[in-house]
Amino acid sequence: SAASDVYKRQVLGHEFVGRVVETGPEVRDVRIGDQVFSSDFTACGHCHWCGRSQHWHCDHRRFFGTGELFGPAAQGAQAEYVLVPHADTTLHRLAPGCPPEAAILMADNLATAWSALERARVEPGEVVAVIGGGPVGLLTVHCALSIGAGRVIIVEPTDARRAVAESQGAIGATPDTAVDVIDGLTSGDGADVVIEAVGINPTLDAGLELVRRGGRLVSVGAHGADAWNMPVADSFADELSLSFVIGNPIGTRARLQQMVVGGALDPTFVIDERISIEAAPAAYESLIRHERLKVVINQW
Fold first, then answer.
1. pTM of the model
2. What ranges in the chain are assigned the alpha helix state H?
3. 99-119 tens-digit pLDDT
């Protein structure tokens, strides 16, 4: 596929922690020797969009390790060195007491999960359904419970991934049992909030089936389809709110880091393998087969 060709020509790696070894003449805040973690994309920090904390829409955005799928190419971090444009905005210092592995997840997966819940305006006691048990879905479960969601249901076909979510306090359901499970918990009303964390049309359809009247459906999966047939009349009659969100590490990382240091969040439970760079090809094969959740390459 075209996407596969792009990745073959790229240095991968969009979530990373490292130590600064050199800075350019425009860098003012980041200093040589700092241990830092990065956003998965760059932003200038001073444009109209950055001023509104909507860094994803910055005209200077470059996404690490993904070719030109999300703007001009920026080589990723699975290498000895990585070049970081707009370093003062793109990078953030690692705080004392914050594990580097937790900081890696703040670069994308944890920030994405948190951004989804913020967009959904989840309130304590509400019933939240999460569709998809990959790292983002599992971290959404973890974050929803940390902010006081009443019940959190994970909708995931894979037994092992459901078990991970259940170990965090979620109620497990398969795609076939999700309606019955949620109806049983809500007297047939449906979930207050549904977070769709897969990124395909069938899971959007499933979200509409699970959300209550007047509820909120937030899609945080990376979609590739050009169109989706939304049942507009029913959605209007049910007063549904639908939104799409991309994680904003730059806007959320300071708060997330404080929550990690303070013990409110520990996102590292999704990491199930730690490898050297030489083992990366085999690890990618395991990820393709869904045998791993999150693999960390440790260059140190």
1. 0.93
2. 2-8, 48-51, 87-90, 100-106, 109-120, 135-146, 159-167, 178-186, 201-210, 232-237, 249-262, 280-288
3. 999 999 999 999 999 999 999
